[in-house]
Design goal:
The protein has two helices and four strands. By secondary structure, it is an alpha+beta fold. Strands 3-2-1-4 form a four-stranded antiparallel sheet. Strand 1 and strand 2 form a beta hairpin. The longest helix is centred in the N-terminal third of the chain and has 16 residues.
C-alpha cells in the first residue's frame, strides 16, 4: 500500500525535478550531433542533441546567441553544448 502523503501530483513532480536539475547539477558540457534543428521567428533555436543511444531536447535562447556562430548551426553537426539543465514543466516523459 502506498501512503497517501507520498503521492505527488504531476505538477509537484515536475516542480521537484526542475528544481533539482537547476539547483543541484549546475553547468554541464555535452557532446553530440544536432538533429531536428528549428529556427522559428522567435529567434530561439530548438534542436535535439543525440549520440548513438540517447537524445535530449535543447533550446538555445535568442538572448544567448549572437553573431556568426549561431548562423553556422546545422543538422548533422557535431558540437559540444554547454549550459544548465532545466525542465519544461508542462511536459515530461516517464519511462
Amino acid at each position: 500500500m502506498i501512503a497517501q502523503s507520498s503521492i505527488l501530483s504531476v505538477s509537484q513532480l515536475n516542480r521537484q525535478v526542475k528544481s533539482y536539475l537547476e539547483n543541484e547539477i549546475g553547468t554541464v558540457h555535452v557532446e553530440g550531433e544536432i538533429s531536428n534543428l528549428s529556427k522559428p521567428s522567435s529567434g530561439h533555436f530548438y534542436f535535439t542533441l543525440k549520440d548513438s543511444s540517447a537524445q535530449i531536447r535543447c533550446v538555445f535562447f535568442k538572448n544567448r546567441h549572437a553573431g556568426p556562430f549561431s548562423a553556422k548551426l546545422a543538422d548533422g553537426q557535431q558540437i559540444v553544448a554547454s549550459g544548465k539543465l532545466s525542465l519544461y514543466e508542462a511536459r515530461v516523459t516517464i519511462n
